[in-house]
Every structure is written in C-alpha cells, then in structure tokens.
Amino acid sequence: MSPVPTSRLRRRVLIATLAVAGVVASAVTANAMFFSPPKPRPSAVSTTTTATTTTSQHRTAAPATSAPAEPGTSVPAAAPATTKAAAPLPPQEPIPPNAVRVAEFVAECPFTHRLPDDPIVMPNLPGASHLHSFFGNVSTNAHSDIASLEKATSTCSPKADLSSYWVPTLLVDGQPVEPTGTTFYYLGEGVRDDVIARTQPLPYGLRIVAGNAKATAPDGSTQSRWSCLHAGHVGASKDFVNCPAGTMIESYLDFPQCWNGKDLDSPDHKSHMSYPVAGDCPATHPVPVPKLRQVLRYPASGDPARFKLSSGPGFTMHGDFFNAWPQTEMAQRVRDCINRIVKCGPNGRP
C-alpha cells in the first residue's frame, strides 16, 4: 500500500476532531434542555391569587340573615325589612267644593264561602275552627298567607282590595244565614285631627282579630254591638236584639287603629295593635292607621232566642282581617281620604 500524503492525513485528523466536538456540544445542549428545573408559570400564580381574593371578598360582603317569619302562622311576624316597591302615587286631586268632610274610604265585599278554617288563629289546620263566613278574597282557607291572597281574586268593590275578612257564621233556627250588606269602612274617627293628619297606611300583610270569641258575658271585652236597620228605637246591645218584622239585624265591629310599628301579628293576634286613648295613640303603639269598621246586615229579625253564632252567643261576635290591599292603592286612599278628612267611595275618590 502506498503511504498517505501528509496533507491529506492532517485533513482527516481535523475532520475527526471537529466531529467529536460536535457530538459533545449536542450532548450538553440536550442535557440543558431536558434536565433544567422548570420555571413557575406566572399565569398560574396570578389565577390562584385572584381566586383567593374574590372568595374572601364574597364572604365579607355576604350579610348574615335570619329566616323571615312565616306569614299565616301564629308566631308573631315582624314587619319586613324590605317590601315590594310600591308604584308612585297618582297626583293628588283638589278637594271638590261639595266633598263631605269625613275621614273615610270603603270597600264593599260580599260573602264568598264558609269553612271551619281560620288562617290567623289556627293556621294550616283545616277544619279545626268553628264555622266562619268569609268575605272579599275568594281563596281564603286554613293555609292562606299573603302570597296566596295576592294571587287570587276578590268579591270586593274595588277589585283591588284582595284582603280577607271573616266572622263566625250566624245561625238562625240552626241554619246558616249570610249577610246581604257587607261594608268595610276605613275611618279616621276617634282621634284628634292632628292624629288623622299623620295616619299611615295599614301595613301590607297585617293581621288583626277584634272582638272576643271566648267571651262568657257581654262585658268590657266585647267590642261588637248589634242593632236593627231602620229601627233605631230598639237601641244597640252587645248581644242579639229583637228587630221588628221587615227590618234587618246588623252587626258593628270596630278594629283597633294604633299599631306598634313593627309586628304584623302577635301571639294573641291583638297585642301588636291598640285602641286610642284620649284621642291619640299610646306610646306603646305610636303609629295611627285607619280604623276598620265592619258592618254586616243580615236578612233576619224577630226573637233573638232563635239566633246563635258558630262561636256562641251574640257577644262572642269577632272579626278577622288579613290585609292584602296593594300598597299603592292603600297609600293613595290614606293620603287623599283619611289625611285630608274627605269621604271617599270604593274608587278612593270623593
């Protein structure tokens, strides 16, 4: 074999050296690529911090709340902290020159049905009460609350009054007799004019019982009275009266008109309300509201021994009221009729 020239040998050595250097460089690069510790991702840190901050703010902002009192139960219900926003009142009209200056508006609410139910005194207990005659809201039963009343309809004029009114059923010779006259007056009487001027609307969802279903005698606990339509000479009594033939026996019952300003009900369904004292509301019940007067006229007359209420004698007459007037309708009538001492009809106008 011929010897390799020196110049070619040198070139081969140089090439081999460069190849080895390239392999080493590649290995170092690969090692740096696959075995260097990973750097943290800024986006992951930022997301975690933001989530923690958001959760913390949500917890701080969430107020502590307590369960509201169940409407229609015998547990006292406080006035709600927030109520449905009432629509703006219409502009106030001037008082007509011929207006009768009596603080009054009315609702005519015919009889709807009879049930042995009482959603105020015996809520959610159908059949547990003595027989009641209901007026106004057509849906009233043992399970009624403000939500169910506001979804129903009414026999009242005005139709806007979705309130429920009920009394013990009158029995004549053992048979139920319903009134043919059913007027519910809202009045400003019995207090001074300055108290009338600051009278406020009855609160939405208010429940009141007036009279004494358990009375054992016609004593001071009996707020109701009986009289005869078109026979005033007979006089009024806390028990049934003997009305002449051709007349009608009628029942009057006044509800209290001073509210304690916080409770929609109370354990006895009376203590959150008070009657006025010396023409003003007492300090314990400082909020004047319209007085509800219930006037019922029955097509019956004659010997009162034939009469009985489902709760007992005539002096056990009592009335229950569950206020479901829309707030705007009630507020407009109090402003225009009660506060200004103007007699208004069912439409809320003189």
Automatic annotation (TrEMBL):
Domain DUF1996: 118-325
Region described as Disordered: spans on this chain: 35-95
Cross-referenced Pfam families: DUF1996
InterPro entries, alphabetized: DUF1996
Low complexity: compositionally biased ranges: 47-87
Domain of life: Bacteria
Transmembrane segments annotated in the record for this chain: none
PANTHER family membership: DOMAIN PROTEIN, PUTATIVE (AFU_ORTHOLOGUE AFUA_6G11970)-RELATED (PTHR43662:SF3), PTHR43662
Protein name per its UniProtKB record: DUF1996 domain-containing protein
